[in-house]
């Protein structure tokens, strides 16, 4: 069997496992991303995310993460929900409605790796779900799954951007896909709508101003300068995705593990303001929201309540 056949088999199995799409690129040094990442870090746009400075070389070369790596298999998994939170509520990014995506996707990647080993032969590789120094969006774009938009998210004409990106980096030579063209055109919807003006120029997001960073990554108090600018987001933010014209093509996912806890969608601002540790544990039992902890979510809610 040749590389083309192997690639087809892998993509068919990825679809069967529920992935939206699968693209493959050659495991190589990311030449274009290197100066961009360096400039972004020098401008301190990573805020308190000190880990972004670590493993600079590994972020740019997957062969330093997996011995003799030949291919990066990029995968997209849809998380766009059927139902949304009620209007009079503090807001949660849609990706956090259901169970923690890290566990859900790791399981699927494990199955895909097993399939490759059983059908193709002993293949060495590692699965990555945004928890290691891998530039997910860059690899997905290189694999032809979409283009990096002005809001720095991966966009696709068919389904927009409400999906997770993951990789399987393997020491198997495959048939490589080619990047697609940029279809943002003259649109500036995401730049105009960002409540904190975090998209400082097209394709460049100042992470230290992003609501997702302020509500999840930032461990200290939210700076006073953001009072009245948080648009009621208590965990993450979807504004730049919600306004993107390509997301009118988003379709609801069919992953049962991403279904929200029934209480989550019905909670009002008052309910959130009065949330107890017990309710937090129940509603977010296996959720990515646990990352910010009960105290972090309370801090965010208090900030929104005091500065609305």
Structural account:
GO terms for molecular function: 4 iron, 4 sulfur cluster binding; cobalamin binding; epoxyqueuosine reductase activity; metal ion binding. It catalyses: epoxyqueuosine(34) in tRNA + AH2 = queuosine(34) in tRNA + A + H2O. Its EC number is 1.17.99.6. Monomer. This protein is an alpha+beta fold and 308 residues long. The protein has one domain. It has helices at 3-16, 33-42, 56-60, 101-119, 136-142, 189-193, 211-217, 239-242, 262-266, 269-273, 277-283, 293-306, and strands at 21-26, 71-78, 91-92, 125-128, 147-148, 154-155, 163-170, 199-201, 204-205, 233-235. The strands form 4 sheets. Strands 1-2-7-4 form a 4-stranded antiparallel β-sheet, sandwiched between helices. Strands 3-10 form a two-stranded parallel sheet. Strand 8 and strand 9 form a beta hairpin. The chain is globular.
What order do the helices and strands come in, and which of them pair?
Elements: H1 3-16, E1 21-26, H2 33-42, H3 56-60, E2 71-78, E3 91-92, H4 101-119, E4 125-128, H5 136-142, E5 147-148, E6 154-155, E7 163-170, H6 189-193, E8 199-201, E9 204-205, H7 211-217, E10 233-235, H8 239-242, H9 262-266, H10 269-273, H11 277-283, H12 293-306
Parallel strand pairs: 3-10
Antiparallel strand pairs: 1-2, 2-7, 4-7, 5-6, 8-9
Binding site for cob(II)alamin: 59, 130, 151, 154, 165, 212, 237-238
EC number: 1.17.99.6
InterPro entries: 4Fe4S_Fe-S-bd, 4Fe4S_Fe_S_CS, QueG, QueG_DUF1730
